[in-house]
Design a protein that fits this description.
CATH architecture of the largest domain: 3-Layer(aba) Sandwich
Number of strands: 33
CATH superfamily of the largest domain: P-loop containing nucleotide triphosphate hydrolases
Largest sheet: 6 strands, mixed
Helix content: 25-40%
CATH class of the largest domain: Alpha Beta
Structural class: alpha+beta
Radius of gyration: 28 Å
Distance between the termini: 31 Å
Number of helices: 18
Number of domains: 5
Bound molecules: guanosine-5'-diphosphate
CATH topology of the largest domain: Rossmann fold
Length: 624
């Protein structure tokens, strides 16, 4: 999939070139690479030129290889890992996904500018594109109202006189320039997108109510935006209120590390009233200024690349997807691959439901014609025809199967190996504690544990249990979560398991510090987790001689094995916890017995079986 976006360029720029053997066009291995092929670490997205530089081949070669795969890209375009891995394989290398480094994110703005300066010279076709804005802040501080006020004051009214915005983003025009607003406010949606690999926001507007000040979710929003390397513009809202105290808000922001320009810092800050529509124009003008500094550019003459921001199945029209175009121009009739599906663009509608023939960079557009409903965060790639669409889908599927989530996630047990493999230079920690007073001492302890190879950085800290949004931030920032005297919400636990995020709970600072220190040095004792393999119900009890007993059971679930540990459950009680001493099918010893079969089981040092007891077979597995 091809995407040209500033954020992709910035955050994923490889730090240095790996030492790889030069390959000439002649030596190219077409599909399969021999066993000793050079391995190359690639970021999640990479520019065509950078990829060619890394491989030390001519960029034309990479472009040709992309074309062979049905992707039309130019030298300045950014391609994702799956696509790059394919190209790399075609040129005789093996690609490995390099985890995104927080360090790179921190220097993102700087790197991005360098990249843009460099590309700017050669890329005549790069033109400024509208900034894409997400509004964040504490609940009830006026995010929705502000989005409303912006839309009402500035959307170019349609002839019908009304504004019928019907998709999850809209554009406003100010001083002849456009700005795109994503209509799902809040850092949760923002980080969920990032966790999916899509960085679509250029600037964050942080809404802080002047009568309420900086609150927990304000701080959370700041940390989420910072972790993504996205600039923050502050809108102090509700200044119409009698008890508004913007100065206090500014003070609190400074304490949170956001020093406003007026006080000598570099955070742009505006005072607004969403209710009375005051300060909105100034806010929009400031956003344009920040956008100018960010030098947001895209090439509209290329085939389109974009990201899904909303998708649904419409009863009459079929799959509908709202996409944000990130680069290039999408036209009616284009063949596109979007996530796991593809289609031909039958019709397109803009944010005021007007049918349009083409959609340019930073434009939100509703698309009709996909064969299935894609997922939010999926990327769009334009291809030549159906044949290439199918081929790209197949490649994406294969790449996904290979790349397991666990391989990416940071984990205390495998941290040392990841450090040694050069994959981790910074350990990002999300810290949740029961009381505010614990945060600073623990943060201090953690950050002091950093070594020469790996720094420990607390990217977000707050009181309260571990939430979905913490897990998403960990996924998006390749970090782990430490809970001190807190638990995790059920939903968060589930997401953590599926996304492979490591959550560690402690109630003694010393134990936590000791674990992290050992993990950094590779001395952490492995953690074992229980895995239940099967359950069986006792149907009969037999004598096994000399007062010994064996249980005749039927396996209800999973399988049971000769080497398993076993618990005997009677109702809610556990009356024995031991190991299997014998396992027989008819008179023969068996290694394992599967669901639905009967067998005889002996339990070490236990003979008080009763019909109806449940035997639970389990083993302890080392946590990866
Ligand atoms: P959100 O949770 O951040 O999206 O907050 P909302 O936009 O839903 O606003 C929360 C409440 O604050 C609503 O009752 C709004 O009418 C009110 N509100 C929002 N902006 C302003 C403002 O500028 N002035 C005043 N007085 N009230 C506001």
């Amino acid at each position: 999939m091809v995407k040209t976006s500033k954020s992709a360029n910035i955050t994923h720029r490889p730090a240095e070139k790996p030492a790889v053997t030069k390959v000439t066009a002649k030596e190219q291995a077409p599909e399969a690479a021999p066993a000793n092929v050079p391995v190359i670490d690639l970021p999640r997205s990479i520019g065509v030129r950078q990829l060619a530089d890394m491989l030390q081949v001519d960029s034309i070669l990479v472009i040709k290889q992309l074309m062979r795969n049905g992707i039309m890209a130019n030298i300045n375009q950014v391609i994702d890992f799956e696509t790059a891995a394919n190209i790399v394989a075609g040129l005789g290398f093996k690609a490995r996904l390099k985890p995104m480094k927080e360090q790179q994110m921190a220097t993102a703005a700087e790197e991005g500018k360098k990249a843009k300066r460099r590309y700017g010279k050669d890329a005549d076709n790069l033109v400024p594109r509208p900034p894409v804005i997400t509004v964040m802040g504490h609940v009830d501080h006026g995010k929705t109202k502000l989005l409303d006020a912006i839309r009402k004051t500035n959307v170019v009214d349609s002839e019908a006189g009304g504004i019928t915005q019907h998709i999850g983003a809209y554009q406003v025009t100010i001083d002849g320039q456009k700005i795109t607003f994503l209509d799902t406010p809040g850092h949760e949606a923002f980080t969920a997108m990032r966790a999916h690999g899509a960085n679509i926001t250029d600037i964050t507007v942080l809404v802080v109510a002047a009568d309420d000040g900086v609150m927990p979710q304000t701080l959370e929003a700041i940390n989420h935006a910072r972790a993504a390397g996205v600039p923050i513009v502050v809108a102090i809202n509700k200044i119409d209120k009698d008890n508004a105290n913007p100065n206090q808000v500014k003070q609190q922001l400074a304490e949170a590390g956001l020093v406003i320009e007026e006080w000598g810092g570099n955070t742009v800050c505006l005072e607004v009233s969403a209710k009375e529509k005051k300060g909105i124009k100034e806010l929009l003008e400031s956003l344009l200024l920040v956008a100018e500094i960010e030098e947001l550019k895209a090439n509209p003459s290329l085939p389109a690349a974009g990201v899904v921001i909303e998708a649904e199945m419409d009863k009459t029209m079929g799959p509908l997807a709202t996409l944000l175009i990130q680069s290039g121009t999408m036209k009616e009739g284009d063949t596109v691959v979007v996530g796991d599906t593809w289609g031909r663009v039958r019709a397109m509608f803009n944010d005021v439901a007007k049918r349009i023939k083409k959609a340019e960079p930073s434009m939100p557009v509703e698309v009709l014609g996909l064969n299935n409903v894609p997922q939010v965060g999926d990327t769009l790639t334009t291809v030549v025809d159906e044949h290439h669409a199918q081929a790209l889908l197949a490649r994406n599927r294969a790449a996904r199967e290979k790349e397991t989530v666990r391989a990416k996630a940071i984990n205390l047990n495998t941290l040392y190996d990841q450090i040694n493999a050069g994959k981790v230079k910074e350990l990002n920690v999300i810290l949740k504690t029961d009381v505010q007073g614990s945060i600073e001492p623990i943060r201090h302890q953690l950050e002091q544990l950093g070594t020469e190879e790996v720094k420990v950085r607390v990217i977000h800290s707050a009181t309260g249990s571990v939430t979905d949004s913490d897990v998403m931030l960990a996924t998006a920032s390749n970090g782990l979560i430490i809970g001190f005297n807190v638990t995790a919400q059920e939903g968060a636990k589930r997401v953590a398991v599926t996304s492979g995020v490591d959550i560690r709970f402690y109630n003694i600072i010393y134990t936590m510090a000791d674990d992290v220190a050992k993990a950094l040095k590779g001395m952490l004792e492995p953690v074992y987790v229980e895995v239940i393999d099967g359950r069986a119900e006792i149907r009969a009890v037999f004598s096994a001689g000399k007062g010994l007993k064996a249980a005749g059971v039927i396996v209800n679930e999973g399988k049971i094995t000769r080497n398993a540990k076993v618990r005997v459950r009677r109702g809610k009680e556990i009356i024995a916890d031991s190991s299997v001493s014998s396992l027989k099918r008819f008179k023969d010893d068996a290694k394992e017995v599967l669901t639905g079969f009967e067998c005889g089981v002996g339990v070490q040092d236990f003979h008080e079986f009763r019909v109806g007891d449940i035997l639970e077979f389990y083993r302890m597995e080392k946590q990866q």
